[in-house]
Amino acid sequence: MELTQSFLRAKSPCAGGFRWFVRNVEDGSGYQAALDTLVSAGRVDDACWLLTQFGPTNDVLRVDSLDAEAIVFAGSVEVRGGIDVDTIVQAGRSIRAGGGLRAGRAIVAGADIRVAGSIHSGGTLQAGGDIRADWGIEVRQALVCGGNLRAAWDLICHDKLSLQGNAFIGQDLIVHGLLECGKGLNAGGAIVCADSIRTGQGMLAGAGISGGMHLEAGWGIKSGESIHAHGSIKAGESLFAADEIRAGAGYGVYAGLNVQLESWESSASVRAQRKPDSLMSGCWAGPSVV
Prior knowledge:
Elements: E1 2-3, H1 5-9, H2 15-24, E2 29-30, H3 31-40, H4 44-54, E3 60-63, E4 66-68, E5 71-73, E6 76-79, E7 83-85, E8 88-91, E9 95-97, E10 101-103, E11 106-109, E12 113-115, E13 119-121, E14 124-127, E15 131-133, E16 137-139, E17 143-145, E18 149-151, E19 155-157, E20 161-163, E21 167-169, E22 173-175, E23 179-181, E24 185-187, E25 191-193, E26 197-199, E27 203-205, E28 209-211, E29 215-217, E30 221-223, E31 227-229, E32 233-235, E33 239-241, E34 245-246, E35 253-254, H5 264-267, E36 269-271, E37 279-281, E38 283-284
Parallel strand pairs: 3-6, 4-7, 5-8, 6-9, 7-10, 8-11, 9-12, 10-13, 11-14, 12-15, 13-16, 14-17, 15-18, 16-19, 17-20, 18-21, 19-22, 20-23, 21-24, 22-25, 23-26, 24-27, 25-28, 26-29, 27-30, 28-31, 29-32, 30-33, 31-34, 32-35, 33-36, 35-37, 36-38
Antiparallel strand pairs: 1-2
Helix pairs in contact: 3-4
């Protein structure tokens, strides 16, 4: 793709950015060449804007390792080793690394992100498709995933976490903001969230589940320890905790919200070491069988 000044003007760029482009990028330059020129000049945000406006390509960048101030590539980035970027790594399509992936400000992919090590972003982490790390994931700001999310170790997000698919976390899932999951949420350890947790399907944790506000699941919720919330606890089907189930003061515990009354005994059962004080719906089935 060739970028002409008239083509760029049609996208309504800012006046300062357009003037710089006219002076420093040859009219009719290649798309990726223009992105590289912007990044080399320290105009990384302008390069990201340009990629957002003109979209991805089918080009593939293949290198042994990647250590740079920033990288903005319109196609896919495939690195045999690790990726270490001071500010932003953004790809129009996928990002793959045989080692870890670290960026000081943001990691953005139009499609999947797959790494054999850990993912660490000092800012945001965003993918239009799946995100998978064979080790852990830590994100200092928001995490947005358009597909499924997998981490073999812990996942720590210091802001909001939003994903469209399923989440499979090998150890603990810790979120400091709102947690919204379009499908199922599964953690081998604890699920801890400072705000509300909402899942379209089920919620399963090998250890405890704790929410700073409400817990809501379209299907059932199951915990290897306790289920605690500072707000309400709502499950479309059953609730199971090896220890206790406790909602916040003045809030209720609800099971079977998506199940007909005649099916409550089998599909809206509630089990814990003792009956929740504020159980409002569902069928109490007695203490959990450990």
